[in-house]
């Protein structure tokens, strides 16, 4: 499921969308940004003046200024700081106003110079040929963060305490970019979505600049003597195309909040280490049944993890999540053990394609493993609420044992009221003769004409991968097997699941 939100993995709480600073390209005049980054100066953004199109433009960056986020800025903000935040708000308001007055007229980067051209054929060849120089990406990323935090120490405070998740995610991003050099449209679409998602992190053009400069230095360190200006230029063109798409995605989403504050209205510890939470968002939270969202707990600032909404959208803005604690010190533990009614959380924008089409043209096969039930429960609610013409729905729910079937009562109740629904629990500690084993065993045991159905699969990644393979063997075309992106799958690396 879903993408670990941060791609360039900034973690500051406020929207980037439309910061009144000059766009990256204006400050990075050539494709190859090898000049040393601006020396820290004790000043924020210089006073802005309206540009030719009525926008405010800043004329300089300062990486040494405090992070531009209301939640982490010093309490005693100076007048200059207040001006800065007022400018941010004003700029966003102006952009939003223009968008509302003439929808569609505001192109994502209409206040910036031309979009980055992206890597050309020679760049692509060079990046591929020289990949061994800069891989494993984990090493490159170690250098990158070292450089970045050394040169701009304040940026460290924008990241969560543990960087493991960030490193892992960034490595996946580099894999994704380098593996998809021949698919620029797909990459642009992915990074546009990511830009929308990153608004919750407060990513700013100045951050991209710092990232870019740190990447250049890291490439140089990693490639050693074999570093070349051509290689760096190729990498920068690849990066800038992605960054441009992110900025476009953030700009296009300026009409929605960067994140939604929610208060916990119910917290049930259904099993040891497994909680069902219900939260009420302050504003309407737009999503579709089957989607997921990044969730942040104030107990672990800047650490966002994905959970699926376990109910169809409701009029009272209540959203349900199912969380299993998988270790200690992570977001899931914070949500399961240290969160209660009245606590607040933040939700990022909803994502994911595991949704129902308009008209159900086929019967459905739903396959859940553990808390992977969450999005399928939301789908069941949506199907159930449709006025007429129900298709048959078969739900196989894998659980470790009967006690682990944490939402069995709700399922049994729905099944008793909906003749089109069949729920089959598959218990890991029971013999396959008695109907136990894994969900895969269950699919093998009984072929209910699965190849004619549309399938939705959700659970541990290994289970999802095995189930998809099994259903494909059975003749179900890929277009009719829906699941959230799997981690480390090369063509889906931009959006793997992370719930920890
Ligand atoms: N909490 C949420 O909102 C969502 C969670 N998920 C994912 O679902 C998973 C849930 O984890 P747990 O509840 O601990 O599940 P689990 O590890 O207890 O597994 C539950 C059941 O899934 C099946 N299963 C597991 N591994 C399998 C394999 N390799 N092959 C075939 N069947 C297998 C078995 O029937 C097992 O009893 C996590 O990986 C989570 O990321 C997915 C979507 C939403």
From TrEMBL:
Q: What name does this protein carry?
A: nitric oxide dioxygenase
- The protein's enzyme class: oxidoreductase
Q: Which cofactor does it need?
A: FAD; heme b
- The family this protein is said to belong to: In the C-terminal section; belongs to the flavoprotein pyridine nucleotide cytochrome reductase family.
Note the coiled coil stretches, chain numbering.
none
The record's region (Disordered) falls at: 102-122, 479-500
Residue span(s) of domain FAD-binding FR-type: 257-357
Q: Does the keyword ATP-binding apply?
A: no
Specify the signal sequence span: none
EC number from the UniProt entry: 1.14.12.17
- Catalytic activity field: 2 nitric oxide + NADPH + 2 O2 = 2 nitrate + NADP(+) + H(+); 2 nitric oxide + NADH + 2 O2 = 2 nitrate + NAD(+) + H(+)
Q: Which SUPFAM superfamilies match?
A: Ferredoxin reductase-like, C-terminal NADP-linked domain, Globin-like, Riboflavin synthase domain-like
Mind telling me which PANTHER family this protein's record contains? NADH OXIDOREDUCTASE HCR, PROTEIN RFBI
Give the organism, scientific name.
Streptomyces triculaminicus
